[in-house]
Write a structure and sequence with these properties.
By secondary structure, this protein is α+β, with helices and mostly antiparallel strands. The chain contains 25 helices and 14 strands. The chain is globular, with a radius of gyration of 26 Å. The structure holds zinc ion (ZN).
Length: 669
């Protein structure tokens, strides 16, 4: 239950819920900052920042400073040579005297951008090392042109790192049967084998503890005098200069805390950074999850452990944010009416919850992205990760709406809709309503869908086994799809047009039947649960609606398109499938669940797949996107005191990276 690292679908549209501030912002904002390799870099606005109180702004400011202060930690965690490599590449880039149009320099610049985006020499998603397209002789000449003091001492290793594809080839290796530590290039372990680490933790873990700490979370494991030891990330320990700077800024931030609860959250984080004790992290996490009243919120620390092949040590990251009051009102209205939705759902009353409580998900505005959340960032956060804390104290689930909105804005004019949506009227409807219906779909899915329904007494919650998560996502999606077309949403003031849902229905089926296939390699099946769920729903309604042509795939000019002829009937079909999947879950009918998944969710039609990949390749849509941050500048009075903070959005990608390296690099000094 962690970050849901979703790649936002391409080709979306404008917001109905735009605040006036955002509308003003978007007129002057040029979203696309840079495009190179497989990456597009965007900027994001921070609507509502100006409306925060002066103290809230100062709180945000010091928290953003605490966020930027940790940048070097992540680079070093990703690979032990990354910081040296970054300094060298940046020095060459700024020192370069030749033509900036030459092929070698262009290739060098592309490589630098890839390294900056990857927070090191490996791709953030594929985990593969980047391939330089400049010559070794060009590189040697640039190194020799540097002033002596900025030439690295171990140039031989750095050259091997850049030019030898077999050296530290994979950031994180997950291939079964190999020593995952020895074959991963991350710096979370040093000189120890996988077996030694596993034995070490097996010996210290207390398996009877009902409230276990997150072992290894803030530790690097290495050997001293032949014995396996942990090095702790803390003040006085590993990464101390960066952590000291984080803590200095947290100590400034705490002066502007909005209330007592928030003050204790920040103070407990300072304590944890000071001691490095994992018990202190749990104490902090409990205080953090309990602070639901503060407008400003943040995460800062070692949180997600995707990049540890053993899933223990976490990467450093930070996101600072404040609550989006308008959009959070939306999720409150939905949760507040949870019982009405449950009681009117198309499922058998035996499988409905008699008393349902919706989950209130908060919608937030990100103010800064840092560490492992930058430049590539999640669009939602659901924390903390410790299962026992979630069970006893709950969790916070948030959506970063200014980030999703920036994705959508930047997708305008990328050619996606023109290629895949032939009906001009539908394209206009999507322009007007896709963003708001996407958000409502997510809200209904998260706040109601997963929380709805019940198991019959005695049914094993794990009865659906390997198909459980696909069917659970399908249940939540169907709940959302069914209600998106309900007049209740208009009555509640959440939509202003009875046809708005059609934009979402069209995009959902287009994605489920066709366009999501662009993320699948030729010859492969659909594996991921969310993708399987979308395919299951879409293929099922296509088949069930075939006789009366509710939905069809049509061919025009040699291309395949989705055509929806009967929206009200399509809604009924969603309701029928929801009823069936809820029955399967409530009764624990494994066979029926398996048959649905196997028949509709997995197998890819190779010809349609090839067509989709081909049509995509003609659009220049980057597979991966990320962001530059806004720039926050303190305004001081004559006495030097900060009286206000301004925000600006004019910094480009490489200038931002060079500034961060200059001003926020406590580990490279
Ligand atoms: Zn879900």
């Amino acid at each position: 239950m962690t970050f849901f690292k979703t790649i936002a679908a391409a080709g979306l549209a404008i917001a109905l819920s735009s605040t006036a501030a955002f509308a003003k912002q978007q007129q002057k904002m040029n979203y696309v900052v840079d495009r190179f390799a497989d990456i597009e870099v965007l900027r994001y606005p921070v609507p509502g920042f100006e409306e925060l109180t002066p103290d809230q702004k100062k709180l945000v400011y010091y928290l953003t400073e605490a966020a930027l202060a940790g940048r070097d930690i992540l680079w070093d965690q990703n690979n032990r040579y990354n910081l040296q490599l970054r300094s060298l590449l940046e020095n060459i880039y700024t020192n370069y005297k030749g033509s900036r149009e030459s092929a070698d320099f262009k290739a060098f610049e592309k490589y630098l951008k890839q390294v900056e985006f990857g927070n090191g020499i490996h791709h953030h998603y594929s985990m593969d090392k980047f391939t330089p397209e400049f010559s070794e002789s060009f590189f040697d000449a640039q190194v020799n042109a540097l002033p002596k003091k900025s030439r690295p001492t171990d140039i031989k290793t750095l050259k091997k790192l850049i030019f030898d594809p077999s050296f530290m080839a994979k950031k994180v290796n997950q291939a079964e049967g190999e020593d995952l530590i020895a074959t991963s290039a991350t710096n979370l372990y040093e000189g120890v084998s996988q077996k030694e680490v596993e034995d070490f933790y097996a010996a210290i873990k207390d398996t009877t503890d009902l409230t276990p700490v997150s072992y290894g979370l803030n530790r690097r494991v290495t050997k001293k005098n032949g014995k396996v030891i942990e090095q702790t990330y803390r003040i006085g320990g590993l990464y101390s200069p960066a952590i000291e700077r984080i803590v200095r800024n947290l100590s400034e931030a705490v002066r502007y805390a909005e209330n007592e609860k928030q003050r204790s959250v920040i103070n407990s984080l300072i304590k944890y950074y000071t001691t490095g004790e994992l018990k202190d992290f749990d104490d902090y996490s409990i205080l953090w999850v309990d602070d639901t009243d503060s407008r400003v919120d943040f995460i800062n620390g070692f949180i997600e452990s995707y990049d540890d092949p053993l899933g223990m040590t976490a990467n450093w990251e930070s996101i600072v944010n404040f609550k989006n009051l308008d959009a959070s009102h939306r999720t409150e209205v939905i949760s507040g009416n949870a019982q009405w939705f449950e009681s009117n759902s198309p499922v058998d009353p035996r499988f409905r919850k008699e008393k349902v409580k919706g989950v209130t998900a908060k919608v937030i505005t990100a103010a800064i992205l840092a560490g492992d959340a930058y430049p590539s960032t999640p669009i939602g956060i659901n924390l903390p990760n410790a299962n026992w804390i979630r069970a006893a104290h709950g969790s916070k689930s948030v959506t970063l709406e200014n980030i999703t909105q920036a994705y959508d804005e930047a997708s305008h004019g990328n050619g996606f809709n023109e290629e895949f949506v032939p009906d001009e009227k539908m394209r206009a409807l999507m322009d007007d309503y896709l963003f708001i219906t996407d958000n409502l779909h997510t809200d209904l899915h998260e706040c109601l869908g997963h929380a709805s329904g019940r198991l019959l007494p005695g049914v094993d919650p794990d009865a659906l086994k390997a198909h459980g998560s696909t069917l659970e996502e399908a249940r939540a999606d169907l709940f959302a799809l069914y209600y998106l077309a309900d007049p209740k949403l208009i009555e509640l003031g959440l939509l202003d047009n009875p046809d708005a849902y059609k934009a979402q229905y069209y995009k959902y089926l287009l994605n489920g039947l066709m366009t999501q296939l662009m993320r699948i390699e030729p010859g492969k099946n659909v594996e991921e649960a969310h993708m399987r769920n979308r395919k299951l729903i879409s293929e099922w309604v296509l088949e069930k609606g075939a006789n009366d042509k509710t939905v069809e795939l049509v061919r025009e000019n040699g291309k395949t398109y989705v055509r929806i002829n009967d929206y009200p009937r399509l809604r009924e079909l969603f309701g029928e499938l929801l009823a069936e999947i809820q029955r399967i879950k409530s009764e624990g009918d494994y066979e029926a669940g398996r048959d649905l998944v196997e028949k509709y969710a997995v197998k890819v039609d190779p010809e349609l797949h090839k067509e989709v990949l081909d049509r995509y390749s003609h659009l220049s849509i980057a597979p991966y996107r990320g962001f530059v941050n806004p720039v926050y500048t303190p305004v001081r009075n004559d006495a030097g005191e900060i009286i206000d903070i301004t925000v600006s959005y004019d910094e480009d990608f490489i200038p931002q990276m060079l500034r961060y390296s200059r001003d926020y690099s406590p580990l490279t000094r």
